[in-house]
Amino acid sequence: MLYKNILLIDDDQDDAEIFTDAIQSLERGILVQSLFNSVLAFEELRNKELLPDLILLDYNMPALNGYEFLQKMKTNERLQNIPVIMISTPTDEFILQAIKTDGLCRYFSKPNSYNELVSILSGIL
């Protein structure tokens, strides 16, 4: 699938900037919007006219973590079919359960290097 409109939700603005740079380095014409507050991101997503093709979602966030965000999405008829890739460091067992029961389409740990991130994103996008 071609993802042309991506929403990145991560409370760490530095990480979001690195992800955005990595995606743009792929030169595939992908638009990336970053939101840094998961509660506000959910409200904005619910009210958006044009929904993203893919959501990159950090797990470790205050107020509403990535898993809670995903659960809220899956109960919203309009949002429940947007593919979500969770990024962060929860356990493999937790992620496997989320993939089975909550519609998470993929997961990866935040890599240690920019080149590794570009490689991962290239394979996904």
TrEMBL record:
Residue positions where 4-aspartylphosphate is found in the record: D58
Domain Response regulatory: 5-125
Domain of life, per lineage: Bacteria
UniProt record, GO biological process: phosphorelay signal transduction system
Keywords assigned by UniProt, alphabetized: Phosphoprotein
Entry keyword annotation includes Phosphoprotein: yes
InterPro entries found in the cross-reference section: CheY-like_superfamily, Sig_transdc_resp-reg_receiver, TCS_response_regulator
PANTHER family associated with the record: RESPONSE REGULATOR RCP1, RESPONSE REGULATOR RCP1-RELATED
Listed name of the protein: Response regulatory domain-containing protein
